Amino acid sequence: MKRRLLTWLGLLAVLSLVLAACAAPAGGDAAAEESTQRELVWMARTNVVENPWEQDVAIPAFEAANPDIKINLLIVDQSDIAVKREAMIAAGEPLHVWSPNWGGNGFASDRVRGLLYDLSPLIERDGLDTSVFIPEVLAIYENEGRQYGFPFLTTGSYTFYNMDLFDAAGVEYPPVSWDDETWTWDRALAIAQELTVNPDDPMNATYGWVEGIWPAEAITWLFDAFPWPDDAFDTGFAQSIDFTSEGAVKAFQSRHDLTYKHKVAPDAAAIEGLSALGGDFQSGKVAMKTTGGWGWWVYSPVTPDVEGGFCWGVAPLPFGAPGAPTRAVIFTDPWVITAGLEGQELEDSWTFIKYLISEDAARAYMQATNTPPTQHKLLEEWYQQFGCMDPADVKDVYQGAFTNGLESSNHLMVGFDELNSTWDNLLGVFWSDPEGDAASLLPDVEAAVGEALLRIAEEEDHSFE
Amino acid sequence: MISILPRQKMARNEALWFWLFISPWIVGLILFRGGPILASLALSFTEYNVADPPNPVGFENYARLLQDDIFYKSLKVSGLYTLMAVPLGIVVSLLMAMLLNQKGVPFLGVFRTLYYIPALVAGSVAVALLFQWLLNPSFGIINFLISRFVGEEGLIPLGLSGPRWFFDPNWVVPSFVLMSLWGFGGSMLIYLAGLQGVPTALYEAARIDGAGAFRRFRNVTLPMISPVILFTFITGMIGSFQIFTPAYIVSGGVGGPAYASMFYVLYLYLNAFRRYRFGFASTQAWFLFIIILILTIIALRASRSAVYYESPGDDKMI
Asked: What's the rounded mean pLDDT across residues A131-142?
């Protein structure tokens, strides 16, 4: 009898759980509205300045204007974003709007693999005005007449410098013009030597120069030793890379010498330590840092008004060799739509992309993040956003990078991740070895990267004829 | 009244319970692992980049793997790590288990818990970041202590300085081995259980025969817990070949410098998820399976004369 009662009670409990699970969720109208919304998956990178804009500005504004579309924002660490994307595509999970240049391979690989939707027919159908974009920047994501994406930020590579350290030592700031041929590697080195204090004691050191140009191959650009074949950035493929030219050897050795010969730069271990403390340049212990233009927004929280803050300025990358025509690596990120979408999904994705590139949304993004815009109209506003620099100087130095630079190999070379891993592995020992000799190391690096380039081309059935 | 079940029925009952208890694992294996395992075998004979359908290439991936320099480098890194980390892990865990198996030590339960806690986060991102910081040659506390004790101006001025740990290719694997010791608590707990299962009568008999502490350890403890040592050796070896997270975090996914932290599974991961060579990566996975299988069989065979089983049928359990 007791057992039967227990059995009935048990069945009752299971039944009520099933009923509860099947019942309509509480919430009435709001829940009903939610269920009629179409969902769009937007993949973004983890970023302290971008994420609040996405969550609190972009999505609410878009959803208010398009109440039948709900944006599902997927935030992933930049280093893992490509992995996540691959896994989602492999699993057939919905993914609509994203950017191809974060983590691993970049735009070129995704284009070759057919992951990107050709937006050209949609642009033509809607008569979208693309003249609002800086033409050279828009063209980066155009290939064989197909427009694959719309750029939402673009920047060159620069020398960021700590004005307070310069002022304290009475040293003149570097110039803002990219054509100023007095701004040479040697002059930058002389300034770095003047500003370096206690280089052998990392805990109490102030370093004159952290050289952080990325990708690693791009240091050769400063020394007029561009290592890629002429058509490599157009096709995305190359048969070889030139790391053994006189300029390339000098470039790598000069960077190495900053640490071990001139003792103006921290070694890799000290950089790692400073980065863990909040960033090498942001620590206030570095007078100059040559690096990608992410400094514009990464360093933007550093102002004289915050504790430990300081005024910082921006200068061109120095000439390693007189008249080097291409010095700056340019980084431009676009929004794209996953290839293969159709019907309502495609229309919704396109609606969202159009919203993201609208003037208002682009302005809100620029203001919230300090990232340089890709539309003519907004640039003048962006130049005003840096309290310690004159807007005219910001304009000169920012724009100069585009007439003295090329888009980065991580965006334009197919299989970049393997190339980067190959040279980083072999150069890693060199950067940590005080006796390191570029001339003896670089032939090996050149050969290894060459092998990787041929392997990548073979895998993608690319012909060099 | 005591009912005595016939022997056959008892055996059937026991088998029934066995299958009942193991069924969640078996069902999980078939449903969630069986498919991917078979799929990876099939993919290992294809070229597959996710975006396009798999393209059959026969044994091409296997042939390519055998000609791949980085494959051998990764195998060497993982092999070296296993050779160092597994024996050291066994020694440290066993020593700690013996210390925590003492009688009459106050707060023994607290100590056992404290020493076990780090194992809960062993192999995690947090531990990798922690050791990256501890072992930083410029800012890390380990090198700071080395310089304070045996540096030029240390307590004992021997003029020694700490190694460059993760920045020196020769020190990379030892650094990861050091990091692996953080997780000794798991094995320590198993040894503790093993030590507590050794009959005290054996120690008493040995004591009466005049055996000292070392003899008792060598002739009583070691043989009695030898199946436990074998178990931790084999599971440790399998785990060591599969190390991924610390290498990924510390090297930033590059496996450097000079491929010194290119562990086997890191290279597999890079090929699959960063370079979209899922077919090739599946080949790597099956190669790893074969390597681990062979090493496990060798370990089991070699252990026959060294491992003591109380019950004659116990060796069939492993």
From this structure: 90
Tell whether A16 lies on the interface with B, counting CB pairs under 8 A.
no
Cα–Cα distances (Å) from B267 to A326, A462, B81, B271, in that order, read: 34, 25, 15, 6
B189: Cβ contacts below 8 Å, ≥ 6 apart: B97, B112, B116, B119
Cβ separation B276–A115 shorter than 8 A: no
**Closest residue of chain A to B269, computed from CA coordinates:** A83
Using the Cβ of A72 and the Cβ atoms of chain B, whether some distance falls under 8 Å is answered with no
Q: Where are the beta strands (DSSP E) in A192-272?
A: 207-211
Contacts 24+ apart (CB under 8 A), B240-243: B240/B78, B240/B81, B240/B82, B240/B85, B240/B86, B240/B180, B241/B78, B241/B82, B241/B265, B241/B288, B241/B291, B241/B292, B242/B288, B243/B78, B243/B81, B243/B123, B243/B176, B243/B180
> Alpha-carbon distance A69 to A40, whole Å?
7
Say if CB A248 and CB A430 are below 8 A apart. no
Task: Flag if B139 and A86 touch (Cβ within 8 Å).
Answer: no
How many Å lie between the alpha carbon of A279 and the closest alpha carbon of chain B? Answer: 14
Query: Could you read off the pLDDT of A282-296 as tens digits, one per residue?
Result: 999 999 999 999 999
Q: Does B49 sit within 8 Å of A421, measured CB to CB?
A: no
What letter represents residue A382's amino acid? W
Low-confidence residues of chain B: pLDDT under 70: 1-5, 311-318
Q: Which domain holds residue A217?
A: 157-330+408-459
Same domain, A347 and A440: no
Architecture of domain B59-317: Orthogonal Bundle (1.10)
DSSP three-state, residue B55: strand
Which residue among A202, A266, A432 sits closest to B257, beta carbon to beta carbon? A432
Which chain B residues are within 8 Å of A428, Cβ to Cβ?
A: 254, 256-258
Q: For residue A124, which amino acid is it?
A: E
What value does the CA radius of gyration of chain B take, rounded to a whole number of Å?
24
pLDDT in tens, A230-270: 999 999 999 999 999 999 999 999 999 999 999 999 998 88
Chain A contact set for B256 (CB, 8 A): 421, 424-425, 428
Task: Say whether both A74 and A112 belong to one domain.
Answer: yes
Residues B273, A82: C-beta atoms closer than 8 Å: yes
Whether A87 and A229 map to the same domain: the answer is no
Contact call for B273 and A202, based on CB within 8 A: no
**Backbone dihedral angles phi then psi of residue A206, each to the nearest 5 degrees:** -120, 125
Query: How far apart are the CA of A45 and the nearest CA of chain B, in angstroms?
Result: 16
